[in-house]
Design goal:
The protein is mainly β and about 200 residues long.
């Protein structure tokens, strides 16, 4: 609107003097002789009635693929999923094994994408409780590869050989340390007997 100031007609700033009818979540913009209402960011409508826009439902958010979008009045919040960290528009895997082991693993904590699990050192296997480890008896299970004898140890095994055999450098194969001795040569035949003497 306008008002007369002496001999001049001047514009009334309806926004400044609160003569506008813009909605609660709208902004009033003064114009020459009037005003315009604009819905605030995150709201939609004609400026007089403005309703919240659900950016999450309409796919208008910029949340990372590994984040959850939570709608708020006039906006939204991105929150990384469990096992990931970041500002929401970007999420990276959390290495749960880098700090306090969340699984209380007996031997190894193994980081996985978005989580972690327990593992065991070579020669051990994970028990059903998926936390503790038990020794693998390679000898009993026949996976030792020893030529002769196998002795199970904690997390491993040892090969040994029968008497008169030697363990090779591969610690599995048994070899004879020396070639077997040759049989003794045949004894020489006795010399022939002299012919009998003629009778007298």
């Amino acid at each position: 609107g306008r008002t007369i100031n002496g001999t001049r007609c001047i514009d009334i700033d309806e926004c400044a003097v609160k003569l506008d009818d813009c909605g609660h979540n709208a902004t009033c913009a003064n114009t020459d002789g009037g005003f315009t209402c604009f819905c605030d960011p995150g709201f939609d409508g004609d400026g007089r009635v403005c309703t919240d826009v659900d950016e999450c439902a309409q796919g208008l958010d910029d949340c990372h693929a590994l984040a959850r979008c939570n709608n708020t009045v006039g906006g939204f919040i991105c929150t990384c999923q469990p096992g990931y960290e970041g500002p929401g528009w970007f999420c990276a895997d959390v290495n749960e094994c880098a700090g306090v082991d969340p699984n209380n693993c007996e031997q190894l904590c193994v980081n996985t994408v978005g989580s972690s699990t327990c593992g065991c050192s070579p020669g051990w296997r994970l028990r059903d409780d998926v936390r503790t480890c038990e020794d693998v008896d390679e000898c009993l299970e026949g996976i030792d590869g020893c030529d002769h004898n196998c002795t199970n140890t904690n997390g491993s095994y040892a090969c040994s050989c029968l008497p008169k055999w030697k363990l090779a450098d591969d610690l599995h194969t048994c070899i004879r340390p020396y070639p077997p001795p040759s049989p003794p040569p045949n004894p020489p035949f006795p010399p022939p007997l002299p012919p009998p003497s003629p009778p007298p």
